[in-house]
Specification:
The protein is of the alpha+beta class. It is about 40% helix and about 15% strand.
């Protein structure tokens, strides 16, 4: 990733961390077979966790058979 992009993401995450919210890790594209990894990119999730952030994994289910689906 471009360093300017990474810095912008980190700045946004740092501001959001102050709100004490959960960050979503979305598996919808993995479920559909379009991607092998969820959103956001792993380095972003790692950054969030390294700063003490809380992460919530979701399947973004629109069908009951996709609820709780993770590979």
């Amino acid at each position: 990733s471009d360093i300017r992009y990474q810095n912008a993401v980190k700045k946004a995450v740092d501001k959001m961390l102050k709100l004490n919210i959960y960050f979503e890790v979305n598996y919808s594209q993995v479920i559909k077979g379009a991607k092998k990894m969820p959103y956001p990119e792993k380095w972003i999730t790692d950054y969030i966790l390294s700063k003490g952030g809380k992460v919530l994994s979701t399947s973004d289910a629109h069908k009951k058979e996709n609820i709780g689906f993770f590979r």
